[in-house]
Q: What sequence folds into this?
């Protein structure tokens, strides 16, 4: 079985940390040596462990941005 590998190639920003020091972050991540994708998930303080998250292509992230820009957050 192949070893699970990942590389954070760029960090765009982090949300506030929780009490254990973990924080959700939007990064570019290469999973198993593949082309990096935009990735949103919670990471440990040293970024060696992660929780479940979601990866996006550029087109998917643009669609998500458009959805968020059109949301009424006052409800």
A:
């Amino acid at each position: 079985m192949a070893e699970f590998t990942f590389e954070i190639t760029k960090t765009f920003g982090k949300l506030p940390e929780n009490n254990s020091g973990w924080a959700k972050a939007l990064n570019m991540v290469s999973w198993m040596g593949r082309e990096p994708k935009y990735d949103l998930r919670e990471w440990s303080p040293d970024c060696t462990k992660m929780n479940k998250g979601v990866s996006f292509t550029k087109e998917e992230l643009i669609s998500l941005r458009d959805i968020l820009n059109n949301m009424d957050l006052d409800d």
